[in-house]
Amino acid sequence: TSSKIRVDLDSSTGVAVMTLQGPPVNSMCMDFLTDFAISMEKLELDKNCRGLILTSAVPKVFSAGLDIMEMYGKGPEHATVFWRAVQEMWFKLYSSNMVTIAAVNGSSPAGGCLLALSSDYRIMADNPRYVIGLNEAQVGIVAPFWLKDNMVQTLGHRQTEKSLQLAQLYSAPDALKIGLVDKLVPEEKVLSTATETMAKWFSIPDHSRQITKSMMRKQTIDKFLSNRETDINNFANFVTKDSIQKSLGTYLAKLKKKKA
Ligand code: CO8
Question: Ligand 1 atom 38: the closest Cα is on which residue?
Answer without folding.
Answer: 64
